[in-house]
Amino acid sequence: MLKKMSALCLSLLLAFSVLSVSPAYAASKGSEGTPTSGVRSADPNHAVGQYNTVNGGGMSPNATGLIATIGLDLYRGSGNTLILDGTTNGTQVLNKIGFQDITLQRWQNSQWTNVKVWSTYRNNSSSYSYEYSTTVTPGYNYRFVATHYGELDWLFIPSIETHYNETSYLYVG
């Protein structure tokens, strides 16, 4: 009787473990495996910034009172195209506002590898919305990381506020 109960429990456990494998996970694994850091996007066509505050989520940036809200989103375009959409909103007109070290990363060799790094700013503005489109190599998971940047000169002494942000990752197959 004990052997039958043990066999039944083991069979049920095995059946549930086989049924619980996610098809989305298997489909997004790719040739380089699944990333062990970062967050996989629930939507295969849109990855959200982990620290976005533009739509009321995430933390409140106002460390020095220069940056009001931040946003970073990654979209799948047609084919192998990825689109970055970023926003940095200041609390006032700033001498310099934008993005420092925008980085397109690909999961490769069990780590996030930088594909491209650049910065972009606007002078004398209270906000900066930025869009960037690029074609990537299929078969990998991708994400964007960036630092939102705001600078205001106070009597020739700059006050600088920065906030790190990263999108969840998307698989491009």
Question: Can you walk me through this structure?
Answer:
The structure is a single chain. By secondary structure, the chain is mainly β. It has one domain (37-172): Sandwich (Immunoglobulin-like), CATH 2.60.40. It contains two helices and seven strands, in the order ααβββββββ. It has helices at residues 2-19, 23-28; strands at residues 46-48, 67-76, 81-108, 111-135, 140-154, 157-166, 170-172. Strands 1, 2, 3, 4, 5, 6 and 7 form a seven-stranded antiparallel β-sheet that branches. A hairpin with a 4-residue loop joins β2 (67-76) and β3 (81-108). The longest helix is centred in the first third of the chain and has 18 residues, at 2-19. The N and C termini lie far apart (51 Å). The relative contact order is 0.23.
